Amino acid sequence: MSEKALVTVRNLTHIYPGSSGKRAVDNISFSIREGETFGLVGESGCGKTTTGRMLVRLLDISSGSVAFDGQDITALQGKELLSYRRQAQIIFQDPYASLDPRKKVKDIIAEGIDIHHLASDRQERDEQVSRLLASVGLRPEHLTRYPHEFSGGQRQRIGIARALATQPRFVVCDEPISALDVSIQAQVVNLLKAEQRLRNLTYLFIAHDLSMVKYISDRIAVMYRGRIVETGPAGRVYENPLHPYTRSLISAIPLPDPEGERKRRRIPYVPAEKEEGGTLVEAEAEHYVWTS
Amino acid sequence: MMKRNKEMTKAVSLVPDSAFVPCKPGETEAEPPLPRALSFLEDSWRKLRRNKAAVVTMILLLVIAALAFLAPVIAPFDPNEQHLSWKNLPPKWPHVSIDGLNGTTLFRGRRVDSYALAKVPEGQYFLFGTDEFGRDLLSRCLWGTRISLMIALVAALLDLSIGIAYGLFSGMKGGRWDHVLQRILEILSGIPSLVLVVLMLLIFEPGISSIILAMTISSWIPMARVVRAETLKIKQMEYVQAARALGATDAKIALSHVLPNISGIVIVRAMFSIPSAIFFETFLSFLGVGMKIPNASIGTLLNGGYKVFRLYPYQMFIPAVILCVIMLSFNLFADGLRDVFDPKMKEG
Lengths: 292, 348
Ligand SMILES: Nc1ncnc2c1ncn2[C@@H]1O[C@H](COP(=O)(O)OP(=O)(O)OP(=O)(O)O)[C@@H](O)[C@H]1O
Ligand SMILES: [Mg+2]
Hints:
Bound molecules: adenosine-5'-triphosphate, magnesium ion
Strand content of chain B: under 5%
Strand content of chain A: 25-35%
Number of helices of chain A: 10
Order of helices and strands of chain B: HHHHEEHHHHHHHHHH
Largest sheet of chain B: 2 strands, antiparallel
Number of domains of chain A: 1
Distance between the termini of chain A: 33 Å
Number of strands of chain A: 12
Distance between the termini of chain B: 57 Å
Shape of chain B: flat
Oligomer: heterodimer
CATH class of the domain at 140-341 in chain B: Mainly Alpha
Structural class of chain A: alpha/beta
CATH architecture of the domain at 140-341 in chain B: Orthogonal Bundle
CATH superfamily of the domain at 140-341 in chain B: MetI-like
Strand order of the largest sheet of chain A: 6-7-8-3-9-10-12-11
CATH topology of the domain at 140-341 in chain B: MetI-like fold
Shape of chain A: globular
CATH class of chain A: Alpha Beta
Helix content of chain B: 55-70%
Strand order of the largest sheet of chain B: 1-2
């Protein structure tokens, strides 16, 4: 991991058309370093997916900017956008909705290869697809199967292979494990980790519970109602949560110890009245918290 | 509690220790081989086969289509050839002596052999009888069915070309394009097709071409609406978002992701629009603004038949039954297809 920022987000805002000006993502800024995993946590509906999709240009950026490797990608069009798309990929939350039911696994994985002409002939294309399939732990005979023949975990791995096919540098993982069985979650997370090491990938890892994010992230941002309320190194945010919302999140992580679980008290978070203004303040090295 | 625990230990100890092998890392990931599942087409065919009505009507439609297609070859007479001396002969079938199919007519309470009276040579049969100009009704029915099926084909083609293209484009573009295109549809569908055809008679000869022209203007509109609605739905699906993130263009998404996923609904819609198109042609021809008079179509046959219904009921009865069978078959078959491709639509 280097100190160089690969993705820099400045004052990013998204307003869904027809939502009467409500900001689904409200003026957030952060940067992701090359090779690191940046965790984004927050409750359902706080704007995580919206943020992730703006970063890969699936949603319009209402205001603010995103820079990738020094290049402003906020308004890219045509060829340049296509080249950005090759480098920035996304893995979706719902493995059942994210694979085209009418396509064979082979063609699902090869879509990116075809679009970006990454293989010079048919044989090379097949080789690349087989290699990707093997790297996510599926067998060659799965190539000619349709998505509905697979389990959730297997589908998610197909989705990962599809994203990796374009040899991206940056991958947005939008809750890739929250729809999966607990026993399968570790499998997928370990696969993502292994691929990251192998290909020097940079991840934006979105989740709604802190425990998994803490395990795989280098740095974390906690989102609440469209804003980032706290951000810092994963260990520090976990051990020394500064914002009351973060504390509430941490108190909600289930413990593997029934005695402790019985005694423990959840800390409810009562938001202050929606205050305008306020900024992120650096409380300790690299650890920022929202104060008004 | 203690007792239960003991029983559990006993049950567990029934499994010999040798059956337990330490698990190597990665081994838990070994998955059982997938059972081979059916592809989309195989699955659809299997479901369709289970629906008896659909299978029967499919066979019936194939037979009707074959007969209509082969009309020039198998029709015993030229459909427009007149034999005035052989007019209004009732149906006569070889070796059948049931009244109504033996060439006799009820005349003043007695059955008389119309064929003998008209001096039809022995061994000459008109299976469906003849009309007021002595034309063979069987041949005319075959040619008329041909027209009906041709209209069906045109309707389906219009649906599948203009309807799909318009709907896909409108749905994929969205926004202002979609808005404008939908308003155009509303205007087009506001034009009553009957009035349109009558107006076209001012410029064109009545005939199949003006019917097709009228259909070109509006018959594909319901299909365009359905395709647009489905496109808007599929466009939101994550697999389309994934394709977009990979860099797929709108055109590629429309053709390779949206179209295959709405194909079932499209087929069902096209099948359902066929009977109404057939009926449209029949209706126009019956009114005399469709097919031109000497030519046979189910509509002109019905028109000729209903005038003499009291005297020669078979002249109207036979084309009416043919029309019913064709319409019913298309409807039942479309129903079967819908159950296969689009079971959710059933309530609607
Ligand atoms: N298409 C849309 N139109 C209007 N509002 C939307 C749309 N999609 C999401 N929103 C709103 O934007 C906000 C953020 O949604 P988003 O999907 O980004 O949340 P999320 O953090 O990903 O939640 P989850 O954990 O449930 O996936 C929510 O309040 C949601 O209601
Ligand atoms: Mg989400």
